[in-house]
Amino acid sequence: MGKITNDGRMGSTHIAIYTAIWMYWMECGKPEVIHVYCRQIMPKAKIRASSTYYGCLGDLHGFGYLQYYPSYNRNKPSCIILSGEGLE
Hints:
single chain, 88 residues, alpha+beta, three-stranded antiparallel beta sheet, 3 strands, globular
């Protein structure tokens, strides 16, 4: 989290989404790959607009904080892999 808070590219929405994903990862028992729907993360991050969620998720992927593999199917969850040191 220290890296995120010191990264000037990161806004409060990015931090909220990353934190919500991290919380979900912890709740799931720290799996290598998280299979998740946006509706599971958005309420935790206090995000209402899916465009905001997907935009920030794309940024987090582009900045190297996580790997995001969208499903493009509303009935199939997307895959997220948290990246970085100190996840344990």
